[in-house]
């Protein structure tokens, strides 16, 4: 059955640039963030990890080889490690084993080059950005564009960092915010898959907090909990005690036939707006019914998926393609 969201529903939806305009530039680079802002994103979404000397940098994971050229650097061969992170054995090079000066020598690369070969043309051009640089970029673009641009930050593996490395990313983020002059009145949201991290932030700050959930598993810091239980009506009421919104996988918001589940309505009843992740333009990431030509890397009908999400009543959408999402919101 087709969905016909009202204009108000579509126009109110936040466009959150997932790792920047990552369908067009290597993710978590200043180039990806700037392009996303130029394309009209309301928020950019950096993921934060920490260096050995306690600097906050933006990477999808603390493991660096998926998004940088570290594996090709002979000088860092001896940094290869195996680590147990959130119950998974991961092999690679980890941000917390490098100083910022060493990170500066690395260059970003496209993470999914098979699906986004055009992005691979930019491999080797961009450094790994710090939170300070991202904030300075946002402030410069606010002056240039005359509009406010939000920061939607994800804290990666906070319990692992605290218990296994001895780094408290909550302390680091709040201290950095103070140094940067960021306060609760700014457009800042902080998200995490973990519960205790958000509860600590709730007690120590007034920033808007978003509980991330997905169809499988549960929070790394609460092994007995499952996200499916957390997103029942009673579970959502408990989330509302410490968080201001819910960041949910699309599969929890839409049934396989595209009709909405009860999640958005249940979350709204608990006072939690829902932000959906992640809207991507390529066939590889879209339901089969929305595929276009060109195999996995070809572009499908992401606008139809956007409209389904709008019809389900989500308050925002994470997207790798801010330009496409803004066009869908504006009816273009």
UniProtKB/TrEMBL annotation:
Domain of life per record: Bacteria
GO biological process annotation, one example: glycerol metabolic process
Known catalytic reactions: a sn-glycero-3-phosphodiester + H2O = an alcohol + sn-glycerol 3-phosphate + H(+)
Record carries keyword Signal: yes
Documented EC number(s): 3.1.4.46
Domain (GP-PDE): residue spans on this chain: 13-329
GO cellular component: periplasmic space
Broad class of enzyme this protein falls into: hydrolase
Protein's recorded name: glycerophosphodiester phosphodiesterase
Keywords for the protein's UniProt record, in alphabetical order: Glycerol metabolism, Hydrolase, Signal
Family: Belongs to the glycerophosphoryl diester phosphodiesterase family.
Gene Ontology molecular functions: glycerophosphodiester phosphodiesterase activity
